[in-house]
Structure formats: structure tokens, C-alpha cells
TrEMBL record:
Full-sequence portion shown in this chain: 1 to 419 of 678
GO molecular function: ATP binding; ATP hydrolysis activity; metal ion binding
Domain AAA+ ATPase: 187-334
Native species: Cannabis sativa (Hemp)
Localisation per UniProt entry: Cytoplasm
Cofactor note: Binds 1 Mg(2+) ion per subunit.
Reactions catalysed, as given in the entry: ATP + H2O = ADP + phosphate + H(+)
Cofactor section: Mg(2+)
Name under which the protein is recorded: Vesicle-fusing ATPase
Length: 419
């Protein structure tokens, strides 16, 4: 225990702070910002002092233990962290300590470990320890983010739909293969988001892709696939899955998950009766897509997310179990959803004091029944155009604009609604 006026630091902390025992050190109070929880902590394994011999460490378990042991502690990038686990003493360096939604500031990255902190391990060294199941660690992070704040991701009003998608399509990916094998279930490999245009299907699919896959997902568009490559469409569909195929061939069960988003999937997967092109192109593409997710040569490492405004046009064969089996309707936002969407799209101008104090978003949400997210975004854009127009002098368009005076008012929004 440290006495009054003393600070206790272990050897690693002393080395990091470049002090020795008995040194006098100045201390400044650190006031953390409101949002100080770490979203992401990347730890590089420096070395392991071995007690027992255990060559493989499960990333999920290791991350859970780390979170427990260091909960509410502040981590700073560059810092060394020492951690005892199953008789081994691990020394990590913090490579990245990122706070969600915050721009990188000039100072060192730092934040507090919370239950939601997603921990990634990097092992570039020769420690002789292999950290396995990184991917499961990533998905279990999604699990913890079940109540993910979609609004902070720029998606308004689709919380219930997201929870539904999560349970039906993600949950099976959260658990390591040995658990799902025991349960005898197969991962969901296809999902369909359907509903009116402009309701956020693409936003949602992208977000799901990023969460599961960690990178920007591949997005292809049905009509483009069809028109651009007439005669070559099948090759295209093959190319689409090429990365996933390579990955599965070379890494097997360790392969990454590949999320492929197919916008306007109805364009190529129309039910047979409704295609009158007589070429059979549609049929063969549908068949090809199906063999990739449900055939003998089916891939285990893909999630195909199809999107359509016209579910009724889709080939039934595509919707059977094992195919695009999870179908979620993304409908027009309700009043609360509209409020969230309006907040998202006015957030920036509000931050920069361009939003007049008389603007009542709740009232606008009440007045915009049956507007889609895209239309609400359009209303905001149009309201801004009214405000900007007021600042322009018609006699002299080159006259410099007085930035301070730009204010988007409630009237601008009301005019925009009536357009
Ligand atoms: P869809 O794929 O359903 O046709 P998109 O996701 O492409 O619709 O939406 C188009 C644009 O409209 C988005 O880029 C976004 O700016 C806005 N938008 C639509 N729905 C929402 C929503 N739920 N929350 C926030 N913005 C939305």
C-alpha cells in the first residue's frame, strides 16, 4: 500500500513513466471526456514468461479475462501491460486505444476499458504462443454490442429490425465452431432485406458487413451485373465469390467471413415466369448464386445479403431455407424513427451552430408521415438550400458570404416539406 503523498507503480509502469523508486514526480489531474470508454484496444504480444506449457490461447477467453482484470483502467497507446493467465505471464504493448466516434486527436490515444471494449491481439513476435479464435473474439464483441447504438452509426429508427437480424443471422456466428457443431446448426449464409426504397437497407447491410467482416463489404448491383456484362454474367458471379473461395481453399476453418451485398437482387433473380427475355440468363445466374451458398461446392465463409424493393418478384427458389433464409422487412420509419433520422442529418449543422433555435425536429417528424429516410435527408438538403440562398446577393454572386449569418430556420424546413 502506498502511504499519503506516495504513488505505487509496478516495474512496468515505472519503466513506462521513466521513473525510479524514490523519485519525486509531479502529478496533474486528468479530466476524462464524457465518452471515455474504449471501443477498441489492440494489444501486441511482446513476450510470454512460461509457467505451464500451453501453446494455444483462445482469444475469446483471453480477452474476457483481460477485460475483467483491467476493467475501468485507463490504457494509453505505447503502454506496456502485464497479465497473468493460466500460469503464463504475458507482456503486451498497447498499439491502439480507440474511443468510438472520436476523431484522432494529436495527443496519445487513451481510454478506459469497459465491458464493451473490443480487444484484438497481435502476435508478430516469436513468443511461441499462438492466439487462436480471433474471429470469434471479433464476433463475440458484436454480441456485446447487441444494443448497439445505431444512431451513432448514422442509422435512424431501425433498432428493432437490427435486433431481429442480429438474433437470426449473427447469433450463430458468435459462438466458436465447436459449439455450433454440437448444436448441429449451420450458419445463416443468406439474408434478404426488403422494403420501400430509401429506407436504409444499404446503410444497414453495409454496417452488418463491417461488423462481421471488419472491412468495407463488397457491394454489387443487380442491373449492373446484368447489363454491363451480358454474356459474361456468370463469370461475374464467379468472380464475386473468388476471394471467398481462395480463402476457404487455403485457410479452411480459419478463413475470414466474406460479406457480399447484392443490391436490387430482383433484377437478376426474378421468378422464372416473369422473365421474358427467353435467354435463360436469369435462371443460370440464380443457379450459380445458389450453388455458392447451398450447393455441393457451397462456401462456408460467405454471407450474401440481398436487397430488393420488390420481394414479390423474387424467384421463390432463392428464399428457401439454407438460401436467403433470413428475411427482414425494412419499412418506412415511424415518428420516432423520423426524429432520429432528422437528428442524424442535422447533427453537423447543429454542432456548427447553423441550426436556428426555432427548429423543432419533433414537430417535423410528426409532419412527415410516410417519408422515407432518403426523403427526410432530401428535406434537410432542401432546407439548407433555402438558408444558403438567403445569404446570396442576387446582384453580385461573387460577394463573399458571411458565414456567421447562415441559419437554417424552421420556416426553411417547412418550405422544404412542401416542395
Ligand atoms: P435503400 O437501400 O433502402 O434504398 P439507402 O440505405 O440507400 O436506402 O438510403 C439512401 C440514403 O437515405 C442513405 O444514404 C441515408 O443518407 C438516407 N437514409 C435512408 N434511411 C435512413 C435511416 N434509417 N437513417 C438515416 N439515414 C437514412
Amino acid at each position: 500500500m502506498a502511504g499519503r503523498g506516495e504513488i505505487a507503480l509496478n516495474a512496468i509502469q515505472r519503466r513506462h513513466a521513466k521513473v525510479s523508486t524514490g523519485d519525486a514526480v509531479p502529478v496533474i489531474r486528468f479530466i476524462p471526456p464524457d465518452e471515455f470508454n474504449l471501443a477498441l484496444l489492440t494489444l501486441e504480444l511482446e513476450f510470454v514468461k512460461k509457467g505451464t506449457k500451453s501453446e494455444q490461447v483462445d482469444a475469446v477467453l483471453l480477452a474476457n479475462q483481460l477485460r475483467k482484470r483491467f476493467i475501468y483502467q485507463v490504457m494509453t497507446s505505447g503502454q506496456k501491460v502485464s497479465f497473468e493467465y493460466h500460469g503464463n505471464n504475458y507482456i503486451f504493448t498497447v498499439n491502439q486505444a480507440a474511443i468510438e466516434g472520436q476523431e484522432k486527436s494529436s495527443g496519445p490515444e487513451r481510454g478506459m476499458i469497459s465491458n464493451d471494449t473490443y480487444i484484438v491481439f497481435e502476435t508478430s513476435n516469436q513468443s511461441g504462443i499462438k492466439i487462436v479464435n480471433q474471429r470469434e473474439a471479433a464476433s463475440s464483441n458484436i454480441f456485446r454490442h447487441k444494443e448497439f447504438n445505431l444512431q451513432s452509426l448514422g442509422i435512424g429508427g431501425l433498432g428493432a429490425e437490427f435486433a431481429d437480424i442480429f438474433r437470426r443471422a449473427f447469433a450463430s456466428r458468435v459462438f466458436p465452431p465447436h459449439v455450433t457443431n454440437k448444436l448441429g446448426i449451420k450458419h445463416v449464409k443468406g439474408m434478404l432485406l426488403y422494403g420501400p426504397p430509401g429506407t436504409g437497407k444499404t446503410l444497414m447491410a453495409r454496417q452488418i458487413g463491417k461488423m462481421l467482416d471488419g472491412r468495407e463489404p463488397k457491394i454489387v448491383n443487380g442491373p449492373e451485373v446484368l447489363s454491363k456484362f451480358v454474356g459474361e454474367t456468370e463469370k461475374n458471379v464467379r468472380d464475386l465469390f473468388a476471394d471467398a473461395e481462395n480463402d476457404q481453399r487455403t485457410r479452411g476453418d480459419e478463413s475470414d467471413l466474406h460479406v457480399i451485398i447484392f443490391d436490387e437482387i430482383d433484377a437478376i433473380c426474378k421468378s422464372r415466369g416473369s422473365t421474358r427475355d427467353g435467354t435463360g440468363v436469369h435462371d443460370s445466374i440464380v443457379n450459380q448464386l445458389l450453388t455458392k451458398i447451398d450447393g455441393v461446392e457451397a462456401l462456408n465463409n460467405v454471407l450474401l445479403i440481398g436487397m430488393t424493393n420488390r420481394k414479390d418478384l423474387l424467384d421463390e427458389a432463392l428464399l428457401r431455407p439454407g438460401r436467403l433464409e433470413v428475411q427482414v422487412e425494412i419499412s418506412l420509419p415511424d415518428e420516432n424513427g423520423r426524429l432520429q433520422i432528422l437528428q442524424i442529418h442535422t447533427n453537423k449543422m447543429k454542432e456548427n451552430s447553423f441550426l436556428a433555435p426555432d427548429v423543432n425536429l419533433a414537430e417535423l417528424a410528426a409532419r412527415t408521415k410516410n417519408y422515407s429516410g432518403a426523403e427526410l435527408e432530401g428535406v434537410v438538403k432542401s432546407a439548407v438550400s433555402y438558408a444558403l440562398n438567403r445569404q446570396l446577393s442576387m446582384d453580385d454572386l461573387t460577394k463573399p458570404v458571411d458565414e456567421e449569418n447562415i441559419k437554417v430556420t424552421m420556416d426553411d424546413f417547412l418550405n422544404a416539406c412542401h416542395e
